[in-house]
Design goal:
The structure holds two protein chains of two kinds.
Chain A (H helix, E strand, L loop, with lengths): L2 H12 L4 E5 L2 E5 L5 H10 L7 E9 L5 E8 L6 E8 L5 E3 L8 H12 L2 E3 L25 H5 L14
Parallel strand pairs in A: 2-5, 6-7
Antiparallel strand pairs in A: 1-2, 3-4, 4-5
Chain B lengths: L10 H12 L2 E7 L3 H9 L10 E2 L10 E5 L7 H10 L5 E5 L1 H5 L21 E3 L6 H17 L2 H11 L11 E2 L8 H4 L2
Helix pairs in contact in B: 1-5, 2-5
């Protein structure tokens, strides 16, 4: 299916799509939190979608607007992509787990949990994957303090964000 | 350690002993990132550090004389580095190879990278660069051999016993390839 066809198919079949957007030849669809697992199950089971390869799951820190959870999926058989997104509040960052839908989501969710502090309800083994066990804080949150920066000014000419590419 | 830590040998005996030691450096490759590739390149036929008496890839730390930390050390990996270092028998030497192991390099403000392996183990020679060319490692090895050739083992051991309990230290005045000192921030932050 083309990106537009995927968007209209999902809107009809699940009735849970808030909005959709096509960028870089891939479609992104936004779903509410309570339809997260339902939409994921549809993507796996529907014969037209046939999304058999969840590429990765991560979060984006949107600061005041909380976190956007991003799920990238690919269908090896149908050769099409979809990005499913949902927003969670910053002070109540939790979402039902997808590890019952795809086993591969288990590690992706552990990583998102330890780096962003997003809780995945029902996850079978929510323990640290990459960070040392004694590590405190969620390092990929934008309000995480980098100790080196606290101790010393950035020694370069420009901040990395100021460099024009 | 026998006599070597108790007696200052007369100059001819010291010369012979150090001459033997400096041209038989079994290297423990603690390769962590792309710098390790440059280290391997230095060991192969084009740059060939074997001609300087450096023998690549000891069978384990217990058979090694020299540790080369090449690459980005993370806080999670740091205990493993300490453990490998402690397994190497004295007298042992450490070369910190590349910006990451010198000071954290481009990962200077990362949440997970150790800013300099000298916080974990004492460093004898710093080789700056990102990554340094194999020639820079050859230069570092020559400088280290020069130091080994001059040193008194008795003083070496005495200094180690004093330095050992310190959490962050360097073994002695460290050498920086290309000149300069390690307190010079332009070299550390390169």
């Amino acid at each position: 299916m083309t990106p537009d066809e995927i968007a209209s198919h999902l809107t009809e079949a699940t009735g849970a799509i808030e909005r959709s957007e096509v960028a870089h030849g891939e479609v992104s669809v936004w779903v509410p939190n309570d339809k997260w697992v339902e939409v994921a199950t549809h993507l796996r089971d529907c014969g037209r979608c046939h999304f058999d390869f969840p590429t990765f799951l991560t979060a984006v820190d949107m600061e005041d607007q909380g976190f956007e959870i991003v799920l990238h999926m690919y269908s090896v058989r149908r050769q099409h992509h979809v990005n499913v997104k949902t927003q969670v509040a910053r002070d109540a960052a939790r979402l039902p787990t997808l590890s019952g839908v795809w086993n591969g989501m288990n590690w992706c969710e552990r990583e998102t949990w330890e780096l962003f502090g997003v809780d995945f309800i029902g996850h079978p083994n929510l323990v640290k994957l990459l960070l040392p066990v004694e590590f405190e804080g969620f390092p990929l949150r934008k309000d995480f303090l980098l100790m080196t920066r606290e101790a010393k000014e950035w020694p370069g000419m420009k901040e990395p964000a100021e460099v024009e590419h | 350690m026998g006599l070597t830590d108790k007696v200052n040998f007369p100059q001819p005996a010291k010369f012979i002993l150090n001459w033997g030691r400096k041209y038989s450096l079994w290297v423990m490759n603690f390769g962590l990132a792309c710098c390790a590739i440059e280290l391997i390149a230095a060991s192969t036929s084009r740059h060939d550090f074997i001609r300087l008496g450096v023998i690549p890839v000891a069978h384990g730390p217990r058979q090694a004389d020299m540790l080369v930390v090449a690459g980005t050390l993370t806080d999670k990996m740091a205990p493993a580095l300490k453990r490998v270092y402690e397994q190497i028998p004295e007298p042992k030497y450490v070369i910190s190879f590349g910006s990451c192991s010198n000071c954290g390099g481009p990962f200077w403000d990362s949440y997970s990278v150790t800013k300099g392996v000298d916080q974990i183990v004492p460093v004898d020679v710093y080789v700056p660069g990102c990554p340094p060319r194999p020639e820079a490692l050859l230069e570092g090895i020559l400088l280290l051999q020069e130091r080994i050739g001059k040193e008194s083992l008795k003083e070496h051991y005495a200094r180690r016993e004093v330095a050992e309990p310190e959490p962050a230290f360097t073994s002695t005045v460290p050498i920086v390839v290309g000149g300069g000192s390690i307190t010079d921030t332009s070299i550390r932050d390169e």
